Amino acid sequence: MIKCIIIDDEPLAIEILQDFIERTPETTLQASFVSATQALAFVEQSDAELVFLDVQMPDLNGMDFLKHLTRKPMVVLTTAYQQFAVQGYQYDVAGFLEKPIAYGQFLTVIQKVRKKLEELPGVDKGAGHNFLFVRTEYKLMKINFEDSTEERREGPECRS
């Protein structure tokens, strides 16, 4: 399941994205916000993998929101203005949905995000593994999600 967050100052846009997320079996909604300022702390502390982010919002626009993020989930920009697409890719966004958003566009973005998530190093979602490899201090640490044990591996293949 791809854990999603919606940030948009338009209630109708939130409603549409919520509907799309509910209709798509591989996605689940963690939260939605009409204020990017309020969403910032939540996104930083959540384990969400995907944020649907409106670009033009009154308190903190989408680009400024991206500048302030320290944790980097995948982001899909949602806006009626195509010129923000190029600017968004400077922040390595996962995709762009032009409003009004069609369900087919949404599914295309979700497939792209799923593929990127499966390609992340140390994460093998396809095989159903419950562990993650993290590189730290020239060591590769295996973190088991279920029992919180860890293994350390050292060697030349683990050096950055």
Describe this structure in words.
This protein has 160 residues and is of the alpha/beta class. It is built from five helices and eight strands. The strands form two sheets. The protein has a five-stranded parallel sheet with strand order 2-1-3-4-5, sandwiched between helices. The chain has a three-stranded antiparallel sheet with strand order 6-7-8, with no helix packed on it. Strand 6 (131-136) and strand 7 form a beta hairpin. The longest helix has 16 residues, at 103-118. The two termini are 31 Å apart.
- Count of runs of 4 or more consecutive helical residues: 5
| Average pLDDT figure | 82
User: Which strand order do you get reading across the main beta sheet?
Assistant: 2-1-3-4-5
Shape: globular
